[in-house]
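Entry:
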Amino acid sequence: MRSYLRQRVVGEAARVDFAELFFDLVFVFAVTQVSHTLLAHLSWQGAIQAAIVLFAMWWVWIYTAWATNWLDPTRPVVRLMLFALMLAGLVFSTSIPEAFGERGLPFALAYVFMQVGRCLFTAWAMRRDTPGNAVNFLRITSWQAFGGLFWIIGAFLPVEQRMIVWTIAVIVEYASPALAFWTPWLGKTALNALDVEGGHMAERAGLFIIIALGESILVTGATFADAHFDGLTLTAFIVAFIGSVAMWWIYFNNSAEHHVPDHVDAGTVKRTSDLARNAYTYFHTIIVAGIIVSAVGDELLLAHPTGHHADLGTLLTIVGGPLLYLCGTSLFQGTLRRQWPVSTGVAIVLLVGLCLVGGNLEPLPLAAMTALVLVGLGAWDTVARERRSAAQA
């Protein structure tokens, strides 16, 4: 019987399959739904609700990326699994705006189906070739089912109670990898048992960052298309675009492209698995959250570039989004390099300073200064990398 697992070649990264890219299309829609939901409910309660939905969305995607790190997406049965997840993902995504309203149950059921169903399928697919990993996925299934109880119970509760119960669900699920998926009778999963293909994981994470940044570009373009065309709006459009490009520059030119494959594939299996768990499973959540919040800030900037000082919501999206993004990339880079990047730390301090004084500024100059910090960081890291390369030549 042919294996359902990827055939790995030493020294070569596994190629991302078209079925995986097709699966990602659902999350283009999901990211858009999260940002629009936050924009429509720009309050502390709305921010908490958007965060809960974002955590759920990311957890679905990253666990699927882990599964296809081992499973072969060219196998028909694996592709059928991905297509089933896509269908449930559409139900999940369309329910996001009313997840804390009348569509809480479809949202929760779709989420639990994806999480539990995928893990059970992966355990079944691994049962012959890697029975140890099959047991690992049974442990993961137990945690997903336990968290799923809170998701489903919360769907029947009023908004305030639903937020509490779903927050517990998020905590349970996000704690499980750190606890090595310890399960009664099955024990816990040792990190050295998870043979991760680092190049594939790095590419998958990078592709999701492209999805999130693409949503930012779409928001900027759509808002600009509907706005009154004048010099101020055009300037705001350019500033928003520069900010998005700078985010791409910081991640792909300075973090991912030049540092991920060497570090993730090097060393022991335990080191590789530890990097994959922290750098990708956890820290990328912060990076994606920063991009989504920044997209909301871009839309607010284009709607009202000048004429009033930035209110708290505008300030926390225009500056807070990039600040959150840099916190995530700092943790990501620090985990890979085993030292924290000084350049990113300086940029974080500058953005914190902008948060403190930004209430006295109009949105356009506030966004322009934020973009300048991001561009400066990208340039700083690029020059430093070129100097290191020249010194090693």
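The two ends are 50 Å apart (CA to CA).
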